[in-house]
Amino acid sequence: MRAAAPRGLCTDCGLSRSAAPKQCGTACQFIQPDYPALEARVHGRARDPARADEVFFGPFRRMLRAKLAEPKPGAQWTGITTTLAERLLATGAVDAVLTMAADPADSWRPMPVLITKPEAMAQARGMRMGYAPLLALLEPAAAAGHRRIAVIGIPCQVYALRAIEESLGFERIYVIGTPCSDNTTTENFHVFLKLLSPRPESITYLEFRADYHVELRFTDGSRREIPFLQLPISKLPGDFFPLTCRTCVDYTNVLADITIGYMGGEGEQWLLTRNARGEELIGLLGDALITAPCGSRGKRASSVRGFLANVERAAGGLPLRAMPDWLRPVMGWLMPRLGPRGLEFARTRVEMKAIETVLHLRARHPKRMRHMVPQHIWDLVAAYGLAAKPGERKEG
Ligand SMILES: Cc1cc2nc3c(=O)[nH]c(=O)nc-3n(C[C@H](O)[C@H](O)[C@H](O)COP(=O)(O)OP(=O)(O)OC[C@H]3O[C@@H](n4cnc5c(N)ncnc54)[C@H](O)[C@@H]3O)c2cc1C
Ligand code: SF4
Ligand code: SF4
User: Fold this and answer.
1) Tens-place pLDDT, residues 207-255
2) For residue 327, what are the contacts with CB-CB under 8 A and spacing of at least 6?
3) Residue nearest atom 5 in ligand 2 by C-alpha distance
4) What is the pLDDT of residue 381?
5) Position in ligand 2 atom list of the atom nearest CA 16
6) Cβ partners under 8 Å of residue 293, min gap 6
7) Which atom of ligand 2 is least distant from the CA of 14?
8) Backbone φ and ψ of 108, nearest 5°
9) Tell me: the pLDDT tens digits for 285-317?
10) In angstroms, what is the span from residue 68 Cα to ligand 1's centroid?
11) Of 30, 22, 10, whose CA–CA distance to 369 is shortest?
C-alpha cells in the first residue's frame, strides 16, 4: 500500500494513497462537501426538510428497530452489518467486500481487508476504534478483477467513495454504512481504556449504548456497565478527539444505501434504508431479521442546551465542567428514565454533534467554515441560537 499523502484535516480514508491522490481536493468531506448533489445522485433526491426527521438523519425510505433472530458471536450488536455482506457474497451478488478486521498486533486497531468468502466475514465482526485507509483497497479490488463489490464504511469514508464512485468502473457497489462519532486514534483509545480499568488489556468490547451506559466486556466473560456521567471524560487530554472527529458533518452516514446503527433502536439495532438498493439488502436477510417500528420518548432541548454550554467552554480552551461527585449517581439513575429515548435520543446526539462542528471549527479553523459546513448543520443548530456569522456560509 502506498504511503498517505500529507493532508490537513484528514482521517486517511485511503484516497490519498491511490494513483490519483489529488482527488482529495474534490472528494473529501473535510474540504468542500456537496451533500445535496451527492444525495440526489445516490438516492434520487436530496434530504427534504419537510419530511419528518430527514433534517436529522438524511434521506431515507424506512427506519426500523431490528435484530437478528440469532445474534452472531463477536458482533458489535447482533451482526446485521457483517451478515448482509456475508449474504451478498453467498448469493454471488458481489465478488468482494471491503471492510475492517482487527489488526493481529492490536485487536482495537482497524485493518482494511478485502474479503471474498462468506465465512471470512466473521473476522470483521465487532467495532474497532480508529480509522484506517479502507478506500486504498479499491484499486487492488479492481486489479483482482472484481466487478461487483460491497463496501462497509464510516461516514467520512463513504463520502469520498461516493464522490469518486462513477470514475471507478465497477459494475455495482453496495454501500453499507454505520453511524460514527467521537472516534479517535487507536493510540488515544488505549489511553481511555487505561482510565476505565486497571486491566485495560482484558477489555474486549466497548459500546456507548442508547440507555446512557457504556458497556464493557472482558476476556473472562464478565461485563460492566458504566453510566455516561461516571465516565472519566474530564480526565482526557484536550486533544483526545482529533479535530476531524469533532467537526465532521455526517453522523448517520447519509450516503450509504443502508445505515446500521443503534441510536434510535432503544436497545436494539436501528436501520435506515435510503434507496432501492438498501431495501434489496434488507430483503437478503428474510426471516433472519426481526423488525419493529421505532419509538420516541422524552424531550431533548434541555440536554442539548447543557451540552452546548460545555462545548462553548471546551472550544474556548476551558476545561469541561464536571458534575459534582455527589450528583453523578443521582443523574446516572435519572437519565435512562427521564432522558430522551429512541428517535429522540438519536436527534439529541445528531444535534449535539452539529453544535460541536460549528463551535470547534469556529474556534480552530474559521476560514474553513464557508466551504465545510453544509446547510443541514446550520438548520440543526438554529434552534439553539447558533447562526452563521458573516463569511461563514456560502450564499446561494
Ligand atoms: C468508531 C465508531 C463509532 C460509532 N459510533 C456510533 C454511534 O455513535 N451511534 C450509532 O448508532 N452507531 C455507531 N457506530 C456503529 C455501531 O457501533 C455498530 O458498528 C453498528 O451498529 C453495527 O453493528 P453490527 O452488530 O451490525 O456490526 P457487526 O456485524 O459486528 O459489523 C461491524 C462492522 O463495522 C466495521 N468496523 C468496525 N470498526 C470499524 C472502524 N473503526 N472503521 C470502519 N469500520 C469499522 C467492521 O469491519 C464490520 O464490518 C459506530 C461505529 C464505529 C466504528
Ligand atoms: S479524501 Fe480521505 S485521504 Fe483525502 S484528505 Fe480526505 S480523508 Fe484524507
Ligand atoms: S467521527 Fe467523523 S471524521 Fe471521525 S472517523 Fe467518524 S465519520 Fe470519520
Assistant:
1) 988 888 899 999 999 999 998 878 888 788 878 899 999 999 999 999 9
2) none
3) 10
4) 97
5) 3
6) 64, 65
7) 3
8) -90, -10
9) 999 999 999 999 999 999 899 889 888 887 776
10) 16
11) 30
